[in-house]
Amino acid sequence: MVMITQDKIKYAEELSTSISYLENLGYSNIKADLEGYETPKSYHKIGSDIDVTPDIVAEKEGRKHIFDLSLKSEKPRLLKSKWLFLNTLSKIKSYRFRLITMKGHYKFTNETVDAINLDTVKLVKI
């Protein structure tokens, strides 16, 4: 469940754009599930065959940030559970969790975030 696999192929360009955007903001040590980058650490859900991998992990000012692309998905339920997990992980480890969204996906992102009460997560709009 990296991004969701069929979505991952479709949104490789958006992932690449997001990485460039973060590099321009001064993020370093960027890991992403994209050719040319080290893949971020995956977390396995015990008792299932689900692995959760953040779309992008980067560092800035000594703090780790986890970014997930918020793009319209065929499987919003999987996306919701992924975001809840990444948000909880971020709180436990004192990371920062952000959602990256793009024009045409704002409404989907806002509705999904509202549905799971994830109001504390900041959106990065590209």
Explain what this protein looks like in three dimensions:
The protein has a single domain, classed as Trna Endonuclease, Chain: A, domain 1 (3-Layer(aba) Sandwich), CATH 3.40.1350. The protein has 4 helices and 7 strands, in the order ααβββββαβαβ. The strands form 2 sheets. A 5-stranded mixed β-sheet has the order 1-4-5-6-7, sandwiched between helices. Helix 4 links the parallel strand 6 and strand 7. The longest helix has 18 residues. The protein is globular.
Q: What is the string of helix and strand elements?
A: HHEEEEEHEHE
Report the radius of gyration as a whole number of Å: 13 Å
Please estimate the helix content.
25-40%
Which sheet architecture does the biggest sheet show? 5 strands, mixed
Look at the structure and give the CATH class: Alpha Beta
Number of helices: 4
Overall pLDDT, averaged?
91
| Unreliable runs | none
Give me a quick take on this structure.
This protein is an alpha/beta fold.
Task: Provide key terms for this protein.
single chain; 126 residues; alpha/beta; Trna Endonuclease, Chain: A, domain 1; five-stranded mixed beta sheet; two-stranded antiparallel sheet; 4 helices; 37% helix; globular
Secondary-structure blueprint:
Layout: H1 5-10, H2 12-24, E1 28-32, E2 43-44, E3 51-52, E4 56-60, E5 63-70, H3 76-93, E6 96-101, H4 106-115, E7 122-125
Parallel strand pairs: 5-6, 6-7
Antiparallel strand pairs: 1-4, 2-3, 4-5
